[in-house]
Every structure is written in structure tokens, then in C-alpha cells.
């Protein structure tokens, strides 16, 4: 098994297949987009598959496909078909904004992808446009309907933003009443890819839950999974669950079992880490699997204790305003 120096087993890879996205959520990237990577700067599918197989052989048993938006990358299903065939991989899951996802849902399920995280910050079409700068609310809701009709496990991820969508917290909680969907509220993080300064957190996980409890006083804590990033709750009589993810407060770091691979091949052992290990260049320089395993073991064995330490150790040349799309959050 892969272990860091703090004794944590690393079993979960978040693979960002692209930095591009068809939305422009203001908390993730500038309105005009980012400086998109050239194709040669990205890992190609063969390199992604090679690294996935290597990491699975070292103990990774779950891979989540992220972006950017995964379905923006051409032939994404080709990669998913290949990853689904890796011996020793127990679970593949997917995070998507839902704009392009609906037509692929039957095949996703046939590949064994039964869990999908859907990014949806509001149930109001007008606020959706204001947040994402795109008129795609109907497409996202169609994807939600298709996922549910195919009995997929759906987790809705909603970033809570002061003055933007706090009025959507209770309507989103209301979704859990009649459909078996988990709604998870995420603290806003300082990865907007823009030059404006992150001024701090107005709605942390404590305030979010206090707000929900005012309307749903009977909401009760339920057990969290071993490596859960969310604190989970259930309202009596509701089919789904409610969760809060302390992404900025970083209260779950002590049990973190995940690593990230960015579209350009950087290994990040923490979301808040600065410049990571460049696996793309190591692959292209001809490093063999034995050498790569030694390098990976060393990198993971020198992992930060938590997100606060990782942030403090950020390299001086790391971008001051990274985008979540470029680091595969």
C-alpha cells in the first residue's frame, strides 16, 4: 500500500482530464476563461492510462474523473472504457457540471460508473446564469433527471457563496425529501483563477448547518464513511441526505486518502499544495515503472500533514490565483 509519513494509506486518485470547461463559474475561473494549455502540455490518454495502471498496482483502488469539465475533452468515453478495464480497480466515479453528460449516462452505467457528483449551486435558472455566465440550467437538470432514471447514485455539490446563492440552501435541501439524492454544501475556496483577492469565509460549515437547522430542527447526524470529506445528516422522512464539506476549514485532512493528477501531469498530494511532481516529463524522459514507483513513493512519503501546512509550504513561483479547473478540485 501507498502510505504517507503520517501513516495514512493512499487509495484514491482524482484524475483531472482537462483544464477546459464550458461554464465560467465566477468562483472557479475568470469570465474570459484561462490560458488554456496546449495539447502537447496535457497528458495524452495513453499516458493517463499508464499512470492509472501504475498507481493501481501501488494500491489505488478508486479513481474519480474530474476536470475542468471531463466531457469537454474529445473521446472521453474512450479513456473511461480503458480505465474501467484496469485489474485491481474497485471503483470509478465522475464529477461533472452536467451540461454535456446526459447522452452518455447509459454507457457510463454499463462501464460500472454508478456514482456521479453533479455540480449545481442553485435551482434558480437566473442565479445559475449569474454564477456560471452560461444559459445551461435546463441541460443540467436534464442530466439530473437522466441520472436518477438510471438509478445512479447522485451527489449534488453546491458551493455556498455569500451574497450569491445562500437563498438556495433550503431549496436544495428540499430535493432530498422525495428523491434519493445527497446534497452537499461546500465551503468556498480561494481558487478563482482571477486576480481579485479572496477575502475570507463568510459561510463556514458551522454556519451552513445552523441555517439548515432553523428550518429542519429534527435533522440528525448519521455516520460518516471512513474517508468521508463531508459531515452527513438526514432529515426524518427524507429519502436523501444532506452533507457539508469543510473544504476551506480543512477539518477532514487527518484522514485524507487522496492524491490528484492535474491535466498537465502534476502529482498533487494536497489540494492546497503548490507546484507538484511533474509525472508527464518523467514519463516522456523515458523513466521506467520501477523508477516511477520509487519517485511516487518518495513524493507521497513527504506529504504535508494537512491543507494548512501545504498552503504554508507553497512554492514561491506557484500561481497566486490558481483556478480549480487547473488543479482538478
Automatic annotation (TrEMBL):
It holds the Pfam family Radical_SAM. CDD domains: Radical_SAM (cd01335), Twitch_MoaA (cd21117). Its EC number is 4.1.99.22. Residues 5-218 form the Radical SAM core domain. Its cofactor is [4Fe-4S] cluster. It is an enzyme of class 4 (lyase). One of its GO terms (molecular function) is GTP 3',8'-cyclase activity. InterPro entries: Aldolase_TIM, Elp3/MiaA/NifB-like_rSAM, MoaA, MoaA-like, MoaA_NifB_PqqE_Fe-S-bd_CS, MoaA_twitch, MoCo_biosynth_MoaA/MoaC, rSAM. The keyword Transmembrane helix does not apply. One of its GO terms (biological process) is Mo-molybdopterin cofactor biosynthetic process. Keywords: 4Fe-4S, GTP-binding, Iron, Iron-sulfur, Lyase, Metal-binding, Molybdenum cofactor biosynthesis, Nucleotide-binding, S-adenosyl-L-methionine. Signal peptide: none annotated. It catalyses: GTP + AH2 + S-adenosyl-L-methionine = (8S)-3',8-cyclo-7,8-dihydroguanosine 5'-triphosphate + 5'-deoxyadenosine + L-methionine + A + H(+). PANTHER family: MOLYBDENUM COFACTOR BIOSYNTHESIS PROTEIN 1 (PTHR22960:SF0), MOLYBDOPTERIN COFACTOR SYNTHESIS PROTEIN A (PTHR22960). This is GTP 3',8-cyclase. The lineage of its organism: Bacteria, Pseudomonadati, Bacteroidota, Sphingobacteriia, Sphingobacteriales.
